Amino acid sequence: MESLIRNFLLKNRQQKLLALSLAIIIWLFIDHSITEIKVIPNVPVRIVNIPSEHTVRDLLPNGYLSHRVTLTISGSKNVVRKLESGDLEILLDATSAHSDNWIVKIVPKNLVSLNPAINLHRHIFEIQHPEFIIHFSQLVTEKVPIQVKLPLGELPKGYEYLDIWPTKLNQTLSGPEEAVLELSKKGLQFLFDLSQISSEDLAQIKSKQNPKNTMSYAIPKKWKKIAIPFQQDVSQTINDPEAKFMEMHFIKRQLLPLNTAVPVRIHYSPKLLNVINPSSIALDDAYPLSKQNEILLFIEPLYFFGVTQNFLDVVQDNLELQIIAATKEESEVLRWSLVLIDKKKMENIYVAMMLSEQNTSLESHDFHQEKKEILRKRFQKFAKRLFPHKENGQRLRIIPRIEDDVIRVSVS
Questions:
Q1: In this structure, what DSSP letter does residue 237 have?
Q2: Of 60, 116, 187, 190, which has the fewest CB atoms closer than 10 Å, so is most exposed?
Q3: 112 phi, psi to nearest 5 deg
Q4: 5: buried, middle or exposed (CB in 10 Å: 19+, 13-18, 0-12)?
C-alpha cells in the first residue's frame, strides 16, 4: 500500500505540480472574476473644491452632507462582500458641477476606502443609487439674534435662581443664503440646565463673594454653545464678543434682618373723615409700637426671605407700616400693609449701587442698558417679597385691633 502511494506521489511529479499550480491559478482567477452585488446604506458624502462665494445646502462644517446615500455596488466578490457602511465614503469634486442644481452620477472613482485592509481599486465595476441632486447656494454671513431663555432644572436645595445676563446676543453665521436669512428672522434660543451646578460649586462662590449681594456664577465656556438647525443641530460656540460676560445670579434662601424700626401711619379714607379721623380714633403707642419725637415706630424685629441684605440696606429707611382705619362695625381687626415709600428713587439707588460694584468699562452701550433693566426687574422682584417674618422663620402676624376708640397693635 505504501509503495502504491509513493509511486502515485512521485511518478510524473513535475507534471502533477504544474497541473496543481494551474488549477490554483484558474480557481483564483474565477474567484476574483465572480461579480457580487451588495446594497450599502448610509454612505457619507464629502464635497471638496466648493467655490468660495458658494456653499451647498445641508453641508456640515466638516465638509460632509447632513444626509447619506444608499449605494448598490457591483464588484469583485471577495471585496464587495467585506464592504460595510463605515468602510467607504463618496468624494465629490464641486468643480465638476455645471449648474446650481448638480445632478450627480456616482462612479467607482468617487469611492474612497476608509478601511486600510480593503482596496477598492479595480474591484468596483458599477454603482447604482437613487437620484442625487446637490443644490448650490450663495454663501452669506449674517448676525442671527440669540434669545437667552429661562434655564431648565433646579439649583441645589437652599438656592434660588434670579436672572442671567446678557439675555440678547448675536451669532455670526455663514451658510446658504435661504437658510441663514430664514434663521435670522426666527432667531436662535440658548438655555442651560441648572442641575449641572453642584452645591459644592455654589459653596465656593459664596465664600468668595460679597455676602450682602447676590451670588454670581460665570457661565462656563463649554456651556456657551448654540445648535444650528440648518446644520443638523450641530453646536457652535457662541461667537458674540459679549458672551464672555455671561453670568447667572442667584441667592441663598436665608432669613435676613431689617436693621431699623419702621414708622407706622394710619390711613384715613377721605370719604369717611367725618366719622373716622385722628380725633375719633387714634393709634395706641403700647408695644410693639414706640413713640419717638412724636413719631410712632414698629419696634418688633422684622426678617425677610428671598431678598439680599444690600437691598434691605437701601430700602430700610423708606419702609412704612400703614394701617387702614375703619369703624368697629366694619371690621374689628384692621387691614395693614408694609409700603415702600418713593419706590422709584430707591430703585435708582439700588441700580446705581450695583453697577458701581462692577467693571463695566468693556461693555457696549446696549449691554450696559440691558444690565440696568435686569437690575431694575430684580429690585422690583425683591420689593414684592417684603413680607415680614419672625426670627424663627415663621410669618409675623401683625394684628391692629379697635379697642375703646383706639387702635392697638399686637403681634403673634
A1: E
A2: 116
A3: -120, 130
A4: exposed
Element spanning 247, H or E: strand 247-252
- State phi, psi for 137 to the nearest 5 degrees: -135, 160
More confident residue, 343 or 98: 343
What order of strands is seen across the sheet that includes strand 88-93?
45-48, 88-93, 111-113
Identity of the residue numbered 237: T
**Could you give the number of structural domains in the chain?**
4
Residue among 141, 131, 123, 108 nearest 75 (CA): 123
Sign of CA dihedral 153, 155, 158, 161: negative
Cα(48)–Cα(46) distance, integer angstroms: 7
Nearest to 398 by CA among 281, 299, 279: 299
Q: Could you tell me the pTM of the whole model?
A: 0.75
CA distance 324 to 333: 10
On whether both 301 and 282 belong to a single domain, the answer is yes
* Alpha-carbon dihedral angle through residues 366, 367, 372, 376, given to the nearest 10 degrees: 100
Last residue of a domain, one of 131, 161, 187: 131
Q: What angle do CA 314, 317, 321 make, to 5 degrees?
A: 120
Q: Which domain holds residue 190?
A: 139-252
Give the pLDDT confidence of 97-146 residue by residue, as tens digits.
Answer: 989 999 999 999 999 999 998 888 888 999 999 998 999 999 999 999 99
* pLDDT tens track for 145-165: 999 998 899 999 889 999 998
Per residue in 263-280, pLDDT (tens digit) is 999 998 888 888 888 888
Residues in the chain: 412
